[in-house]
Here is the input.
Amino acid sequence: MAVVGVVMGSQSDLPVMDKALQALEEFGIPYAVKILSAHRTLDETVAWARKFAAEGGEVIIAGAGLAAHLPGVVAGAVAIPVIGVPIASGPLNGVDSLYSIVQMPPGVPVACMAIDGAYNGALLAVEILALKNGEVKDKLVRFRQAQADKVTAQDEALQNRGGLGNDQSKRDYHA
Ligand code: RP5
Here is the structure.
């Protein structure tokens, strides 16, 4: 059963939203994915969101560009967390979408990611699921540790390279 719903306003959003799908797959999260438009297919959008939530869906990630009302419309239809992803498109390059999504009026929240931040949208969904799913939590902890290990390894490589590290003797050696 899909626990995360990923919805986007157009096929043109897919190259960005695909990063969310890939991240969910990496974490083994069952998801449903739809192209639905808040203005072109309003009734279908509301019906899909309500059905998804009624069937046990726990989080929705909604990506849209331009006057991006899809996340807000979805959030108005259901009472589960909605994560909005502003998509860079058109003359304003996603700033329009960012403002549309981030400025939700009080009472109906949408968690707004960075412009084109679909990957983080999926990670936030994973963090929400991890609150009550130990298996997902373990994967998340391992993912975070792997990130930390990568930074540590990068720093070690930098220190050992000399010239740029903090060790003055190595800096002198390369001078
Ligand atoms: C929005 O308008 C979509 O989310 C998309 O980002 C943008 C452009 O849509 P298309 O004209 O490419 O279908 O509704």
